[in-house]
Amino acid sequence: MTDIAARRTGLHARTGGPSDGEDHLLEQLLGWSLVVVLALLTTQLGLF
């Protein structure tokens, strides 16, 4: 399929990056939770 035909049919390549859906808040909460857990773990182990 040519580039022009792909644009006309609306096909887009998925790169595996973040989507524009409603999961944005959930991704943010999970990301910050991971940061907090890693920070607690490193302080408990005396790494920092």
TrEMBL record:
Superkingdom field: Bacteria
Region entry Disordered, spans: 1-21
Protein name: SCO1431 family membrane protein
Organism this protein belongs to: Streptomyces endocoffeicus
